[in-house]
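From the pipeline queue, job 12 of 40. The input is one protein chain; the requested action is below.

Action: predict structure.
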Amino acid sequence: MTNTIPFTELSEKLKGTDLPDTLIRDHLDRMEPAYFERYEPGVVRRHIEMINRLGPVNAAEIDVEFLDDATWRLTVVAFDNLSVISILSGLLASNGLSIRRGDVFTYADASPAVDGRKRSLRSRRRRRARPGTPAAPPDITSASLRTQRKIVDVFRVGASSEKPPDWSAITREIKDAMHSLRMNSAGAPQRRINERVVDYLRHEEGAERSSMFPVRVAIDNDTGTGATRLDITGQDTPAFLYALSTALALRDINIQRIDIAAAGAEVQDTLEVTDRRGDKITDPRKLHELRFVITLIKQFTHLLTRAPNPAQALEHFNQLIDQVLANVPPGRAMEEMFDQLEKQEVISAMATLFGTSDFLWKDFLRMQYKNLFPVLQDIKVVGIVRSREQMEGELAARLSKVGSYARRKELLNRYKDKEMLRISMRQILEKKQDIHAFSRELTTLAEVVLESAYDICDQEQRRQYGEPTLPSGEPCVFSICALGKCGGRELGWASDIELMFVYAGQGSTSGPHVVLNSEYYERLVRMICSTIESRREGLFEIDLRLRPYGEKGALASSLEKFNAYFNEKGGALPYERHALIKLRAIGGDPVLGGDVEAARDAFVYHEAPVEGRSWTHLRERQNDELVETGAINVKYSYGGLIDIEYFVQDLQILYGARNDSVRGPNTLEAMEVLNRSGFLSDEERGMLDRAYRFLVRLINALRMVRGNARDLVLPDWSSQEFLFLARRLGYEEGDGAGPGERLRRDIERNMEWAARALRTRFVHKLFD
């Protein structure tokens, strides 16, 4: 259908301009009739003049006109892209501006010329910008540029503060963003705008309210406009249009018109939308999905400021919606899921979870939606702390239903991941984080999983090799011993699991295929390690490097070889004996486990002089070799977590020979006993306890954000990453400082305490 306004009439109005006739004709033929009904010829002429200035290096033309009462008319003429509304609304929101009304007009696709003159309207299918700069001459009337779709967006914009907006800067930002879209790199401006919107949301007073109110969504397909009309009524929420337009663009839904009207505390957003081809949305399922997306986005942006990284939370939330739509069958099941996700406690939890860690989303939430959805449907289950007996019973019940090794391995790892997700979610969502409870439950999970993996693998091995026996004919028993964080019941997020496997002695198996006990247990340990799957480095990853003879030694050691290696005349280095402080039997035969612990006590806690100087040398090497110049590593830099651990462990060695109560593997419990026994003053204990808890929380937050146990270097103080880290730890503005500055002060204070403890008390008293 061709525009009904005569070409000659408009040409008459445009006399005296140097606009090419072909450009005017193109505008007439490809713009919808509603556009010409809304704008008089003089305004149309101005729009065509703006289009005439578009070109390969000028992707947008901007016009700003002051109206009244802190409102402006913003006209944007640009090349078409689905992300235009999202980019514009985000830029405006980040500058304290909001769209109150708007028209979004888009060229129809150009068809080949008919009789060399007339063009017909084709489908309005949106096309993304192609990569690279189009090979076209600067003249906009050239065929290659003229045929590309254009948009004419006209908005009535209002300011939320008395400070006048810097329209010169805003215009530059819009033009730069449109140029990036033109170059097919929407991600770059989107990321920058996300960061800007984040800052705006954080500083917006009253952006978060204590409760949410219902959102009403009415959908009308009988408007006679060729578009689907959406009437969205609810509380005003900052950056809602930005969040909604982003979500709609991701789903190929095109906004044609916007009208926003305030009525008291409520706002009614009226949008006219089409599908990617420019048609109404009529599919009942798509309409149901659309209502769901709008409602959740409205509620989600209401609580977005709870997220440490709101922009990341919004991105992950959109991906969750896609997971729901793709994996939950339509009908009652989907409606129940939608109803559950709309609850305030669930929406609030998702805002915090999704804005905490990109790694957590990619490796757990997105990939394990089957685990996530049940937890979201019963969010209260996250707060339950489960005992070892409860975990053992639940896992055993699941494993009893399957017989093959492959299925049992699958169920074991699925249970492990589900419980890790639940425990991690509680740690993220709790306002008062109990790092001790988190570590204990994570350690309990590790013990249960290891014991089950041992049972599964031992059964498989015995089918082939029979029972391991000693020369006396007695069964050869086996012990799983934990060291490091697992031994101390101090596992954190992405902590590896340091283990040592010990069997009773030499001998052979009963058959049918007879092998030496050493070979049997070598195979068994290897199978256990391959049965427990680690999603990435350091995340529930088994580490056997502390076994006798390190990486050159057997994976499992007999008790005799354990004793020979770690006694005073054995080959163990001082730091290897020192590490045995954390040794704790956690699985297998309890009697053998007790024998290993008793042998450890004899090697570590004795009357011989403490090898203190070797530890100061080791500490210097760690700082020199593991910490880059100028970097702060919260574990290995001076004042890092390891200083507190070494300090406490050395006091345990010093006094443990005469007082066995100080020998425990847990650092916080050891501090308490050392204090109670008079070996650590109240002031020292309080200072070190606070510093230790702080550094553990900091390390957990770093690992959760980055997804590995290795990178514990603090980001630059002034970086966005450091700011998000501060928010993840619960820091807010106060005392004249922002979240990042307040975290920086606490880091410096606590690391100074830790460094001072080792420097002034232990080193001087023992070695001066």
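Job complete. Confidence is low (pLDDT under 50) at residues 113-141, 205-210, 764-768.
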